[in-house]
Amino acid sequence: MHWPRALRAAYLVTHDAQAAEDIAQESFLAAIRALDTFDRRRPFGPWLHRIVVNRAIDWSRARRLRSEVELGELVPASEEQPELADETLAALARLAPEHRAVVVMRYLLEFTPGEIAEALDLPRGTVNSRLRRGLDTLAEEL
Amino acid sequence: MKRELERVEIPDEHGARERAWAVLSSAFAKRTPASRRSLHWRPALALAVVLALVAAAFSSPGKGVVDRIRKTVGIEHAAPALFSLPSPGKLLVRTDAGVWVVQRNGSRRFLGGYREASWSPFGRFLVAARTNELAAIEPNGDVRWTLARPGVRLPSWGGTRTDTQIAYLSGRSLRVVAGDGTGDRVGCARRVARVAPAWQPGAPRVLAVAAHSGSVRVYSVDTCRLLWHSRPGPVPTKLEWSSDGHRLLVLAPPGLRVYDARGRLLAEDRPPNPARDADATFVGPENYGVVGIRVRGGQSNIFAPRTLFHARGSLRQVTASPDGRWLLITWPTANQWIFVRADGKRIRAISNASSQFESGTFPKVEGWAR
Fold first, then answer.
1. Interchain proximity B305–A55, CB inside 8 Å
2. Taking a C-beta distance cutoff of 8 angstroms, is the pair B34, B42 a contact?
């Protein structure tokens, strides 16, 4: 029951289906490993989704660091960025991964701004400003 | 907004779910719940039984290396030639023409038309195979001795500074000869698989061999006593001991397994179909992490266990430097070699890997020695 949302959240942040699958799978495995230390009075979903989103942000940051490689000499000439056919996806692509993550957590996973701030270790004000900027950008695009 | 986010189409969403179900249900079934007393502390190995990921890489040294690589990858432009190695040591490289040694300063020496080779345990010599000949050679090309045997393949040199042994295949039989070329004899196993045997460091004259059935068999070669064996399965393509001899990596595509020195399975990776593990090696300061190459369709990832590096086409090999500080990843699709520093701060790419060795085929790394 948690898989579809975990995969979707990872995909919306990374925009890479293969990476999203890996991230969602690895997050589940990490959760399985940590089950014995998990406080079962707390809901499982938010705990898992927090792992997924943080991993997706990490992956996106790493890819950004590698972009010089991907656009430069290391990549065969045939490499191209995929065309984003979906309007929503294309609009999200206008945002930095960290901003996408905030939007996804708020509107797909239904975290409160306070929960997002805690999960991503951000000040509440930063979460609010990212949400506002994200919505503005998406409104323009959509 | 929620509706918009929920209607975004995810490529192969159903397939991802199926693959995940297979992996996760298996992982959950194999999970060993911790007792109350151990809730706050568990040895790293207790975590290592999780299926589908190379859990050895989760042990603190491995994970540390991996995280550093993943988070702080830095980039340098691809160099047009292999000007130098980023780490002390020397490389042994095989091409369609024969075997080369590459020194730290980038100088390359062609040793002759051998089809396989490997370093001696301390990198002072190498052993190379021609069709009907086994030869011990110095890195400067001087031949120390040769031995004529039919169908020589996959030599492997192990032992201590004062007592070394070479195992090799002659046809489908295992043979063993002393490091000075004397005492050549039939080894302990017949009908072995075509994979280089591996000597256990720290336990002289203990040898891991892959049997034709896919079973890994570990012998004391002096007495031919079978110390342990694994169950039959996919035939391994690589056997590698950790530098302290405490762990054995068995690459048996599509997956891989890690055993301890007594044959207990510590970790296993079974990638979801159609992915496969193409290569793997131990890495990290304590040599307990595992870095692997996973190929799926026309794409490859370096995983450990998360994706560290993504490439179109096939990544072929991953080799750790002797000090464990660098990885050499070979990428035939781009005709490049990629050096990744294990602290994650640098990547060095070398273009035109084939032409470095005047070869029409992509060069294979046979070893990186001190």
1. no
2. yes
> How many other CB atoms are there within 10 angstroms of residue B48's CB atom?
22
Domains of chain B as residue ranges with CATH: 2-369 (2.130.10.10)
**Contact predicate B57/B307, CB 8 Å:** no
Both tokens of residue A28? 């589940």
**Side chain identity at residue A99, one-letter code:** H
| Shortest distance, CA B4 to any CA of chain A (angstroms) | 7
Domains of chain A: 3-141 (1.20.140.160)
- Contact yes or no for A33 and B72 at CB 8 A: no
Best residue in A69, A70, A71, A99 to probe B by mutation, most B CBs within 10 Å?
A69
Contact (CB<8Å) A29/B27: yes
Taking Cα atoms as reference points, which of B245, B284, B287 lies closest to residue B160?
B245
**Residue B180, pLDDT above cutoff 70:** yes
Read off the tokens for A73: 């000499």
How many Cα atoms within 13 Å fall on the side-chain side of residue B70? 21
What is the DSSP track for B64-117? HHHHHHHH-----PPBSS----SSSSEEEEE-SS-EEEE-TTS-EEEEES-SEE
pTM of the complete model: 0.59
Residue A109 reports pLDDT greater than 60: yes
Judge: B33–A35 Cβ closer than 8 Å, yes or no. Answer: yes
How many A/B residue pairs have CB atoms within 8 Å?
A: 134
What confidence tens digit (pLDDT) does each residue in B243-259 have?
Answer: 889 999 999 999 999 99
Query: What is the C-alpha to C-alpha distance for residues B118 and B126, in angstroms, rounded to an integer?
Result: 6
Q: Do B73 and A66 touch (CB under 8 A)?
A: yes
SS3 call for B246: coil
Residues B88, B370 contacting (CB under 8 angstroms)? yes
Residue A3 at interface with chain B, using a CB cutoff of 8 Å? yes
**DSSP-H helix ranges across A15-123:** 17-33, 44-71, 87-92, 97-103, 113-120
Please name the residues in contact with A130: beta carbons below 8 A apart, sequence gap of 6 or more.
Answer: A98, A99, A102, A103
- How many H-runs (helices) and E-runs (strands) does chain A carry? 7, 0
As for the ipTM of the complex, it is 0.79
CA distance A21 to A24: 5
Tens-digit pLDDT profile for residues B127-170:
999 999 999 999 999 999 999 999 999 999 999 878 899 999 99
Which residues of A fall within a CB distance of 8 Å from B20?
3, 7, 21, 24-25, 28
